[in-house]
Specification:
The complex is a heterodimer.
Chain A lengths: L3 H31 L12 H34 L6 H13 L2 H12 L4 H8 L11 H25 L3 H9 L4 H29 L3 H6 L8 H10 L4 H24 L22 H31 L2 H6 L1 H37 L4 H20 L2 H12 L5 H43 L3 H30 L2 H6 L7 H10 L3 H23 L13
Chain B lengths: L9 E10 L2 E9 L4 E5 L6 H9 L6 E6 L2 E2 L10 E4 L11 H6 L10 H13 L15 H15 L3 E5 L7 H18 L2 E5 L3 H7 L2 E6 L2 E7 L10 H6 L3
Parallel strand pairs in B: 3-8, 3-9, 6-7, 7-8
Antiparallel strand pairs in B: 1-2, 1-4, 4-5, 9-10
Helix pairs in contact in B: 3-4, 4-5
Classes of the chains: A mainly alpha, B alpha/beta.
């Protein structure tokens, strides 16, 4: 129950927020569509764009297959051993890659899997003749596995842990062999979540920018996103950038539509109950298999992170931290991160409040339901048009007007905010919805409103999800290279951009140091977001 | 109940176990070939006793003996035991035939004779012709019947049940109890069943085991239970 005023501010606010998103995206897309090229080379399918599209799909498909396929044994082993020392830390390690800047992790991967890296040394001593190349397709796949295997693994473990505890008792009692246990219990559970997981990973890999920018090379290993960036930034060939952008929108649209058909992969929060006890895997072979599988996964994830840490410490951190280039970039990054985080939260809250307000209208009718659905779809809309495409559109739009670099910080902030929007909404909406359902009638009955309500009713319940959303949005913006790549210049430098330019100019010591700083910043933000506060006086926590 | 294939006595010899802050100490015998109702307040250790006998919990000391064979160190899969829980007795994504068939062979390598046996068992519990049905399409009572069918094809001398009828409504409960008594007459297995329902105790069990505070306080025949009202909790269980 909302007051009439609350209801209409909710609906009005969300309309403004939705309108702003639509206008911002539409302007970029229209700029692409209506751009009059000086030279007439507007064909969308040239052999170049065709090759780029083919490679984009190929690497995304391979990445998805490898990341999901390799995650299965790891997830099975982790789920089979629900109680061992350090397991919770392994699961936390698997949550880490999502929160870390891609650029930072790429450096770690190069350190481990590069020509001088320990992985290749090991493989060479084991008798492999050709080292694995961290550049080109193999490098891109490796990096995509690094980011997505843990994601897939966590989702799979969650799905296995959701199975009733009786299953494992029955399996033991029926003497199911490991193979029939997999066939009759584990595989059917995994099969349910696999399409969602694979779809999600495919989407992430098809729109991957930074990994391909750093590890890809030449026309042979370029995805649409990177090709757009290169067309604009290096070749200044707007028609090609436009053709590629339209292809990219068509591709993401197609993938999103397909994703809509399968069940969404959800972790359903971390399950509150402790995982059920398992009675299989008590033979020596099973134990050895699980230990080796889990240890390899942990090493695979841990080594690149350690490499970032170690080589970062070797850099002259003191000089780096006090250099004017760093301070300038840090200030710019901080300003953009704060601005985009606030914007993302504000827009999300407007949209969620609007959805709640429409739900509250008992006689909303068809129009109301449509509007509610439209508000919900706004976050998918953001996924449809990737940051580089948005940037390209606005770049073309603003170039005739004047100096793009003056407006660049604002554009990057807005694009970062839009990128964070789906995540912020996914964190905030369920909590706000539940909180609203639980308290709205009581609050209306007592006539509580305003700041007092915000502090005493909303804050105790919503603080935690809000912190999580804020820290996530901020880490995302701090580590993002995609939006800034188009606009970065000597006058406009963020931390990731500084890191990337140091890397491109082979100042590796500086790059290593910057990577460590950026990595630690994002790590701290992630920890702050998930930080468990000691429970407050329960009297105030209006449940 | 005197049959040649009668189920074994289950002896608990000084079985001690500590789970967190709770200590259990079980001494006693479950009579072979009988249906024994396991009663007692919540948290008293009924399920833990079942877990110990099935092998899902290992005692810190003491011995568990089936007839003359000690099973204390045996893995659950090597104990001659069938299980029926209150819920989730069937793998939800597998049809009834597979669910029951897994009771005969763990990789479902079934001979024609085995297949016939599965169908017979299903018919025996009143689920004739429902081999292809998935558990989600069955009622609660039908699911428990299917679990009985699986216990039937397994031919294990010991059957442990943790509140098998608790999720069913009263009418269905007495039907199921009748079915259980009938099946038991044929198999003669040793049945230990956790229950909270005094009617159920009277209707289908011959013996009663009363557990409280992690100990077996009483093991007696059902007809003598009334004489033990001096144990406060027994009195409360009988609602007097």
């Amino acid at each position: 129950m909302l007051t009439v005023r609350e209801r209409w501010t909710g609906i009005g606010g969300s309309a403004v927020a939705l309108g702003a998103i639509l206008v911002f995206i539409a302007a970029a897309v229209l700029a692409l569509l209506l751009f009059q090229p000086a030279s007439s080379g507007g064909a969308i399918f040239t052999s170049y764009t065709w090759n780029v599209l083919r490679f984009t799909l190929l690497q995304a498909a391979l990445s998805t297959a490898l990341a999901t396929g390799l995650a299965i044994p790891v997830a099975l082993s982790l789920a089979r051993r629900p109680h061992f020392f350090g397991r919770i830390w392994i699961l936390r390690l698997m949550a880490l890659p999502m929160g870390l800047p891609v650029l930072v992790v790429s450096l770690g991967l190069i350190a481990v899997w590069g020509r001088q890296g320990i992985a290749n040394d090991l493989l060479l001593t084991l008798g492999l003749s050709e080292p694995i190349s961290i550049y080109g397709l193999s490098g891109i796949l490796l990096a995509h596995i690094f980011f997505n295997l843990p994601l897939a693994c966590r989702l799979m473990v969650a799905s296995l842990e959701r199975l009733p505890g009786e299953y494992w008792k029955l399996a033991a009692s029926l003497r199911l062999t490991p193979l029939s246990l997999f066939r009759f219990i584990e595989w059917p559970a995994l099969r349910q979540v696999l399409p969602g997981i694979a779809g999600l990973i495919f989407m992430l890999c098809a729109t991957s920018f930074t990994i391909v920018l750093v590890l890809g090379g030449g026309p042979a290993a370029t995805t649409l996103e990177v090709a757009i960036y290169q067309s604009l930034r290096f070749d200044f060939d707007p028609p090609r950038a436009i053709a590629l952008s339209l292809l990219q929108i068509a591709l993401t649209g197609l993938v999103l539509a397909l994703l809509g058909l399968v069940k969404r992969a959800e972790e359903n929060g971390t399950t509150l109950a402790a995982p059920s006890r398992r009675f299989d895997g008590w033979t020596g072979t099973a134990l050895v298999w699980d230990v080796v599988t889990i240890a390899m996964a942990v090493l695979f994830l841990l080594l690149p992170l350690l490499a970032v840490f170690m080589s970062g410490l070797r850099a002259d951190l003191g000089r780096l931290l006090t250099s004017s280039a760093f301070m300038q970039a840090a200030a710019t990054s901080a300003a953009i991160a704060v601005a985009s985080t606030l914007l993302a939260s504000f827009v999300s809250i407007c949209i969620i409040k609007g959805r709640l307000a429409v739900t509250d209208l008992r006689d909303a009718g068809k129009a109301g339901r449509t509007y509610r659905g439209l508000l919900g779809a706004s976050s998918s809309l953001v996924l449809l048009v990737p940051p580089v495409v948005l940037g390209t559109g606005w770049f073309l739009l603003l170039r005739p007007v004047g100096d793009v670099s003056c407006i660049a910080p604002f554009l990057v902030s807005i694009i970062n905010a839009l990128m964070a929007l789906p995540f912020v909404m996914r964190v905030l909406e369920p909590s706000m919805q539940t909180h609203h359902d639980r308290t709205s009638r009581l609050v209306a009955g007592l006539g509580i409103s305003g700041v007092w309500k915000l502090w005493h009713i909303d804050r105790p319940v919503l603080l935690k999800p809000a912190l999580l959303a804020l820290s996530f949005a901020m880490a995302l913006s701090l580590g993002d290279l995609g939006a800034v790549a188009l606009f970065g210049s000597n006058d406009f430098v963020t931390l990731p951009w500084l890191l990337y330019s140091r890397l491109s100019s082979y100042r590796t010591a500086d790059a290593d140091g910057l990577a460590l700083i950026l990595g630690v910043l994002c790590l701290l933000l992630t920890i702050a977001g998930t930080f468990e506060r000691p429970t407050e006086r329960s009297g105030h926590a209006a449940g | 109940m005197q049959q040649d294939k009668q189920g074994p006595d289950i002896h608990l010899r000084d079985v001690r176990l500590r789970l967190g802050e709770t200590r259990f100490h079980f001494v006693g015998t479950v009579q072979g070939g009988c249906i024994t109702a396991l009663i007692g307040p919540s948290g008293s250790g009924k399920s833990t006793l079942l877990n110990l006998i099935a092998g899902f919990d290992a005692p810190q000391s003491g011995k568990i003996v089936f007839g003359t064979e000690e099973v204390t160190k045996k893995h659950p899969s090597h104990r001659p035991v069938s299980l029926i829980f209150q819920d989730h007795n069937l793998f939800g994504h597998l049809d009834l035939f597979t669910n029951v068939g897994l009771g005969i062979h763990p990789s479902l390598k079934l001979s024609a004779e085995d297949r016939r046996q599965v169908s017979t068992a299903l018919a025996r519990v009143g689920l004739a012709g429902m081999e292809q049905r998935k558990p989600a399409t069955l009622s609660g009572g039908e699911k428990q019947r299917a679990a009985f069918a699986r216990a039937l094809v397994r031919h294990k001398p010991v059957l442990l049940m943790d509140e098998p009828f608790a999720a069913l409504d009263p009418g269905l409960r007495s039907d199921m109890a009748a079915l259980l008594v009938e099946l038991h007459r044929e198999t003669g297995s040793t049945v230990l069943m956790v229950t909270h329902d005094p009617d159920e105790v009277e209707r289908l069990s011959q013996r009663v085991m009363f557990v409280e505070g992690g100990r077996i306080m009483l093991e007696t025949s059902v007809s003598d239970l009334g004489e033990h009202r001096e144990i406060f909790a027994v009195g409360r269980f009988l609602r007097t």
